[in-house]
Structure formats: structure tokens, C-alpha cells
Design a protein that fits this description.
The chain has about 300 residues and is α/β, with parallel strands linked by helices. The protein has ten helices and eleven strands. Helix content is about 40%, strand content about 20%. Helix 2 links the parallel strand 1 and strand 2 (about 65-70).
Length: about 300
């Protein structure tokens, strides 16, 4: 009798182990199944857009739990390079796609790059909050930032910051930045920048340095404004009425440094990438554009 009880106990223990192992295997299979189902969208490039892109990615996780959007920065040039190499699905770009980039993407992927407008922005001219300058022209900006430009002192612009703060400190971006290239094309007429500027890796860094430096001037996306800086109205040409980077002036392109925010794909987007871009163009996605400090698409553009 004792042997029977012992055998029965062993049998029950063995059965329990079999069921446990089977349960674990099933659980592991389900876990692997979930991993397989998970779709990853790689989205990188423009530092101007990186905060906005991150907000989109976090919000979309709730809309599509099985889709993970991985966001990286580095500048528009880096994003376009990675798109050419097939490293990412979407390149964020705060400037137009350059002809050489278009050719290279077609060559390496066999597909034409497609630019999708996802919002609007303006390159704002930032000065310290205590700087009294009321306006600035495109020509004056070129004389401050451009190679060979003759403006080195605030007093040359009629601005009195005291002798200790009279020398202008120029805050710029690295050359991989779409904002850098846009400013170079539209303000400097594609001429080189004057050497000696403080070249920052991100849009936020530009504004933070200007906010800490009374004699500084810099350019960055309007969505990065803080209480420590002022956005200076810009006159398209000397003698013209200065224009502020407002919603109305950006959409009408009256502000001289207005631009579109782009997400670029190799060919027409499909599957999860198309669904993501469609969501970005939806009312929910465009509310995030406004929340991030940029200008959402008009109904006609959507």
C-alpha cells in the first residue's frame, strides 16, 4: 500500500511538471508571437523636428500598440543619408530634398523620394530677452553671419548693450542641419558662413545659449522659443516693413523665413508607414504639431 501511494505521488508530480513545461512553452510561444507581430518604424533626421517626432511616436503607441516608432535626430542631412542607405523608413527634413539626394535615393533604392508636408515652421531670429533691437533685415543678417560681412558690433545696428556686450556673438548650427542649409540658402544666398560662430548641434541648444548670452544672436525653429529670448521681426529687404513669425504670416509665406516641415520616404509609403503618416495628417496628429509650437496643416492641405 505504501508503495502504491509513493508511485501515485511520483506520477502526479511528473504530470504537474509536464503541464508546467507545456504552459511555459505556450507562454514563450505567445511571447515570441507578440515580438514577431511588433512592427518597428525608424524615423530620423531633422533636429528641428525631433521633439515633435518624439511626441508623435509616443502618442501613436496608444493608437497602434503593436507599432513602435523609433526616433533619432542628427540633422536633415543625416536623415537623408540614412534614407539613402535604407537604415530608416522616414527622414524628417526641415528643408527641401536636394537634387543630388533625390538622384542618390533613386539610384540606391530604385524609388523616387516622396516628400510629405506634415506642418509649417519659420526660422526665427533670436536675441536675449533684454536686447532692445526692434527689427532686422535680411541684408543685416547676411552682414552679421555671412563670410565677408562687416557687422561685428551691436552699435553698428544702433543697439546699445554697453561696451561689455557690444561685440555680437553669433550662434549657428552644424552643417548637417537642415536649418543651417535653409538659412545659408535664403539669407546668405548660398555663400559661406563667417568663421568664428558658436555652432550648436541642436535647435534647442541655440536658443538656450542665446538666453544665457546678452550679446548673442541666433537662428532656430519658432517652436523652440522660451521666456529667455525674443523673436525679432525680419524685413525681407532693407526698407521693407518687418514681419513677425506668426501663424498667419507663415501660412501666407509673408514671413521671409517661413518653411514647411517634411517627412520623406523612398517611394510611396505602404503598410504601417502609410498608416502612420495618415495618422499624422489627421486631426489628432495635427493637434500635436500645434502643441509642439509649430503650425498645423490647413484643412485643404490635409
Amino acid at each position: 500500500m505504501k508503495k502504491v501511494v509513493c508511485s501515485t505521488g511520483i506520477l502526479l508530480s511528473a504530470l504537474a511538471c509536464v503541464l508546467l513545461v507545456a504552459g511555459c512553452r505556450k507562454g514563450n510561444q505567445e511571447a515570441r508571437k507578440d515580438v514577431v507581430k511588433k512592427t518597428v518604424i525608424s524615423d530620423g533626421g531633422s533636429d528641428t523636428m525631433v521633439n515633435l517626432a518624439q511626441e508623435w511616436a509616443e502618442a501613436y503607441q496608444k493608437v497602434a500598440p503593436n507599432v513602435s516608432v523609433e526616433v533619432s535626430g542628427g540633422g536633415s542631412g543625416v536623415g537623408m543619408r540614412d534614407l539613402m542607405q535604407g537604415v530608416i523608413n522616414i527622414a524628417n527634413c526641415s528643408r527641401d530634398v536636394e537634387p543630388k539626394e533625390r538622384e542618390q535615393i533613386l539610384k540606391t533604392t530604385g524609388k523616387e523620394p516622396k516628400s510629405h508636408i506634415v506642418g509649417h515652421d519659420a526660422i526665427a531670429i533670436y536675441v536675449h530677452k533684454d536686447n532692445p533691437i526692434a527689427k532686422i533685415s535680411s541684408e543685416q543678417l547676411a552682414a552679421i553671419f555671412g563670410e565677408g560681412g562687416t557687422v561685428e558690433k551691436w552699435s553698428q545696428l544702433g543697439v546699445d548693450l554697453g561696451a561689455e556686450n557690444d561685440t555680437i556673438i553669433r550662434v549657428s548650427r552644424q552643417n548637417s542641419s537642415g536649418t543651417y542649409l535653409y538659412f545659408r540658402e535664403h539669407v546668405l544666398a548660398k555663400k559661406d558662413f563667417k568663421p568664428g560662430s558658436r555652432d550648436m548641434s541642436g535647435s534647442k541648444d541655440v536658443v538656450e545659449l542665446v538666453a544665457r548670452t546678452r550679446s548673442a544672436i541666433g537662428y532656430s525653429g519658432m517652436g523652440y522659443a522660451t521666456p529667455g529670448v525674443r523673436m525679432v521681426p525680419v524685413a525681407p529687404k532693407a526698407g521693407d516693413e518687418p514681419v513677425t513669425p506668426s501663424v498667419e504670416n507663415v501660412l501666407s509665406m509673408k514671413y521671409p523665413l517661413a518653411r514647411s516641415l517634411l517627412m520623406v520616404t523612398a517611394g510611396e509609403p505602404e503598410g504601417a508607414v502609410k498608416a502612420y503618416l495618415d495618422w499624422i495628417h489627421s486631426e489628432e496628429g495635427q493637434k500635436i504639431v500645434e502643441h509642439a509650437g509649430y503650425i498645423p496643416l490647413t484643412q485643404a492641405e490635409r
